[in-house]
């Protein structure tokens, strides 16, 4: 950071016997301004804004507004500057106050309290259903409230001074009703004209009562009816009331109203407002107020401190540096509060060099060393684990005449703990207790972590007992203990540490019990977890079921499904099965490939009175799909459809589409598709892809084309499979223009693969478009794809069926030269083509080659051979093939028998054909 030069003037009001001096252009980063040699230390506080229970810190230069009465003319809040402007970061008690009869300079450093924003205060500004205070209706005060004054001393002819004095005396009492009643009497008798003092006092009463609507009405009455000039005293009275109550938004409202009415604030206004904004950490209003103050050239020391504290607390360090720059630009007279806030800002940012220079400059400006400053530096050094300098500061305390206090020792413990020095932290911990101080929760937590890390288990037990004796929640202690051991991956030591009253608490408290059991499960200590569950003393059936379900799911998520099985088998048995637990266990057994147990659980649910939900159906369906039982999966889906209240989610819908496709259930696919369209479900990219890929054979080509165009219109990108499906659909429908468009689209996106070319080649081949077929093969080779076996098969089939045997032989030669080995499809094509032509010798050669290749004929091959033998009149050979099929373990199908019967008929063996037809009917074909 750039050098910070401030024109510093010691504030004579701070202490009458302070050295009067002026230090011009003091440079915090100038080595010439370096202080005594001890300035190499630092300080520790986990968070300088944390609420510590033992804090007793006071405000700087505070007017005792809370105990003294506001003067009638409003001067009581005029001297507010520097008084309530900062809820400080400092957490120590010190003896730096004034002598008896003077204000304690630390009074304003009280710990921050959260401001409760009561909506009733904000809503009180609304005018609805409230009577204006201008009229002071009788309902405003109790009818029994009388005005306690002597009638002979006051009357319609009494002077304003007499009336104001009586009003002032009544205001010092506790009965606001009397004050309001006498104020109403004054209005009735014309005693309020230009009487600002009376209005100021009544505004104070209204602020104390929280009657903000009445206060707003009173301000209007002052200006419009009584002819009083609105001044800062009027609004300061209300802002001060908001400050005492912590009403941040309300205080901001009065300030904005003040500006809207053209009233110029004074220093006290800004001091109170900035203190209020700091209480509520209201950055926006604080920034606006500070900007307004600087524009008006007011000098409120506490306002700068408040703004700097807010930025530091909220870690807005760049903005905090700007406030430090404003201190220089505005020639602010730094008081003790400013110095300490500045010191804290640097420590919080880890700028310890600048912080030490601030401390040196502070001493040079006439402020004696104090424990707060040293503790702040020790805190800062502890925060960055620089305990060498923190130790130097601690050792130097006595040299400068300052005794270390409770916070000093606590800071040293935390610093050494952060530096992972168990011995030093323990030394300060022992000294802290020897001096009669009590370690706070942070110290105990630090010591517990160090003891866990360094294996001092006996000290761990003692620290746990000490934490319990100090009143800490046992659930908090357990959480700290588990966190410490989990961090070191030594959770296995917890069972031996956890004993006594803390373990009894675990057994009685279901939350702590679940935390411990989950920690054991997470670290694969399943037996210890089950032991705790068996010994537990709490009873809550619903909570217990949820806990067991969580444990089962956690075991699976942590990669130990066998532990999930152990938990399930050891959990208490119930007559009413828990749907969620059973569902999770079906999934676990599926993960373990234990189909028998998974199906057993499903059948148990099916036979019970438990209604299955959508998640359970999803799990069961996937279980059957995983084990290849597609028909059973379809039956589960049928059962799901019978439950009218089941609405499948996106994932289950996609599973249903895939299952129906694999089972070739075209009707189911079409029905599911039109249900989806009717339901108006918003489709995503995956849904479009799944529907197109699965429903290609179940939907008309026009509907598929519309769906594909709709997908593109919504900006969703098809994948390679979707492109190939659409190529196949358009190719089989002979929509070659659309097919070429799809192919071109896929090619531009880099999604065209070998299957894309094969699909297009097959489409041209089926349509006998040999020119485009050959052209596509050349493009396939040109674009870096070797001509695939599938492409050769397509060309063989196309040329063979068209009878172009010369080209058929050429393709066959090219296939052999390419190095591809013929597959079932290749041999079946050759058998079919040669058989159709009656070339039985070639069929025999192909069959011999087929068998020599080691592949062997399949069902399609045998069917083709039977057909070929029938064309060639070799009926006996055809019948022998049926016998050979059965010996090979291949069961004839309807096509087999149909080809055999046709062969018999063509060869006038009608009786044999009838016998085989009757056999087909007998076996149900």
From TrEMBL:
SUPFAM superfamilies: HCP-like. Keywords: Repeat. The keyword Transcription does not apply. One of its GO terms (cellular component) is chloroplast stroma. PPR repeats lie at residues 231-265, 335-369, 370-404, 405-439, 613-647, 684-718, 719-753, 788-822, 823-857, 858-892. GO terms for molecular function: mRNA binding; rRNA primary transcript binding. Pfam families: PPR, PPR_2. One of its GO terms (biological process) is positive regulation of translation. Gene3D superfamilies: Tetratricopeptide repeat domain. Belongs to the PPR family. P subfamily. This is Pentatricopeptide repeat-containing protein.
């Amino acid at each position: 950071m750039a050098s910070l030069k401030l024109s510093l003037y010691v504030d004579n009001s701070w202490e009458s016997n302070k050295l009067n001096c002026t230090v011009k252009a003091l440079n915090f980063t100038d080595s010439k301004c370096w202080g005594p040699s001890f300035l190499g230390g630092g300080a520790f506080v986990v968070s300088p804004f944390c609420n510590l229970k033992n804090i007793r810190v006071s405000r700087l230069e505070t007017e005792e507004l809370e105990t003294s009465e506001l003067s009638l003319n409003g001067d009581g809040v005029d001297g507010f500057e520097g008084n309530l402007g900062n809820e400080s970061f400092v957490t120590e008690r010190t003896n730096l106050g004034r002598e008896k009869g003077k204000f304690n300079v630390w009074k304003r450093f009280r710990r921050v309290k959260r401001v409760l924003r009561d909506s009733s205060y904000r809503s009180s500004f609304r005018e609805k259903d409230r009577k204006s205070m201008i009229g002071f209706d009788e309902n405003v005060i109790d009818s029994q409230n009388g005005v306690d004054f002597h009638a002979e001393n006051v009357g319609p002819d009494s002077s304003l001074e007499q009336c104001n004095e009586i009003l002032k005396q009544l205001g010092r009492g506790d009965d606001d009703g009397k004050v309001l009643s006498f104020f109403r009497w004054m209005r009735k008798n014309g005693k309020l004209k230009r009487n600002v003092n009376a209005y100021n006092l009544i505004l104070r009463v209204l602020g104390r009562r929280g009657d903000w609507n009445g206060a707003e009405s009173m301000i209007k009455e002052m200006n419009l009816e009584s002819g009083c000039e609105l001044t800062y005293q009027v609004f300061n009275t209300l802002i001060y009331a908001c400050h005492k109550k912590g009403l941040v938004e309300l205080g901001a409202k009065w300030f904005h109203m003040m500006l809207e009415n053209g009233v110029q604030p004074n220093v006290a206004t800004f001091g109170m407002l900035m203190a209020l904004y700091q209480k509520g950490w209201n950055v926006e209003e604080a920034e606006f107020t500070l900007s307004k103050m600087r524009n008006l050239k007011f000098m409120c020391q506490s306002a700068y401190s408040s703004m700097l504290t807010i930025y530091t607390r909220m870690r807005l360090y760049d903005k905090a540096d700007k406030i430090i720059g404003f201190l220089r630009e505005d020639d602010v007279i730094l008081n003790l509060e400013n110095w300490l806030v500045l010191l804290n800002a640097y420590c919080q940012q880890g700028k310890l060099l600048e912080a030490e220079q601030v401390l040196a400059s502070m001493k040079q400006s006439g402020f004696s060393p104090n424990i707060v400053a040293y503790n702040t530096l020790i805190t800062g050094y502890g925060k960055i684990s620089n305990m060498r300098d923190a130790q130097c500061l601690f050792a130097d305390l006595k040299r400068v005449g300052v005794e270390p206090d409770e916070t000093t020792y606590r800071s040293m413990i935390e610093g050494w703990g952060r530096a992972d020095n168990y011995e030093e932290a323990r030394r300060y911990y022992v000294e802290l207790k020897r001096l009669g101080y009590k370690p706070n929760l942070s110290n105990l937590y630090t010591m517990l972590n160090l003891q866990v890390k360094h294996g001092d288990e006996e000290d761990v037990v003692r620290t746990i007992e000490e934490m319990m004796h100090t009143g800490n929640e046992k659930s908090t202690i357990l959480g700290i203990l588990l966190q410490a051991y989990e961090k070191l991956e030594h959770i296995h030591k917890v069972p031996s540490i956890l004993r006594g009253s803390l373990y009894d608490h675990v057994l009685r408290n279901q939350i702590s019990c679940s935390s411990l059991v989950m920690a054991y499960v997470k670290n694969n200590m399943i037996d210890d977890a089950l032991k705790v569950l068996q010994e537990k003393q709490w009873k809550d059936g619903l909570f217990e079921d949820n806990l067991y379900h969580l444990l089962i799911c956690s075991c699976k998520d942590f990669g130990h499904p066998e532990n999930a099985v152990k938990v399930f088998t050891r959990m208490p048995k119930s007559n009413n099965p828990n749907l969620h637990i059973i569902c999770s266990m079906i999934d676990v057994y599926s993960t373990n490939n234990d189909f028998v147990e998974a199906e057993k659980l499903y059948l148990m649910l099916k036979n019970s009175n438990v209604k299955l939900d959508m998640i359970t159906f999803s799990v069961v369906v996937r279980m059957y799909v995983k084990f290849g039982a597609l028909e059973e999966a379809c039956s589960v889906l049928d059962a799901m459809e019978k439950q009218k209240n089941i609405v499948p989610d996106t994932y289950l819908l996609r599973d249903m589409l895939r299952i129906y496709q694999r089972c070739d259930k075209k009707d189911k696919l079409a029905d599911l598709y039109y249900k989806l369209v009717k339901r108006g479900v918003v489709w995503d990219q995956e849904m479009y892809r799944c529907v197109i890929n699965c429903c290609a054979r179940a939907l008309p080509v026009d509907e598929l084309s519309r769906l594909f165009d709709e997908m593109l219109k919504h900006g969703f990108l098809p994948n390679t499979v979707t492109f190939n499906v659409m190529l196949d659909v358009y190719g089989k429908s002979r929509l070659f223009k659309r097919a070429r468009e799809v192919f071109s689209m896929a090619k531009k996106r880099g999604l065209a693969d070998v299957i894309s070319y094969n699909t297009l080649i097959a489409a041209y081949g089926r349509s006998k478009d040999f020119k485009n077929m050959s052209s596509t093969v050349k493009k396939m080779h040109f674009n870096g794809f070797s001509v695939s076996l599938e492409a050769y098969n397509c060309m063989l089939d196309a040329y063979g069926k068209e009878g172009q045997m010369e080209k058929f032989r050429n393709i066959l030669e090219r296939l052999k030269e390419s190095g591809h080995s013929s597959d079932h499809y290749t041999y079946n094509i050759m058998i079919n083509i040669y058989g159709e032509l009656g070339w039985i010798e070639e069929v025999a050669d192909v069959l011999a080659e087929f068998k020599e290749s080691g592949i062997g004929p399949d069902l399609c091959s045998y069917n083709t051979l039977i057909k070929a033998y029938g064309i060639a009149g070799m009926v006996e050979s055809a019948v022998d093939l049926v016998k050979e099929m059965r010996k090979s373990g291949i069961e004839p199908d309807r096509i087999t028998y149909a080809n055999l019967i046709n062969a018999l008929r063509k060869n006038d063996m009608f009786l044999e054909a009838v016998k085989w037809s009757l056999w087909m009917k007998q076996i149900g074909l």
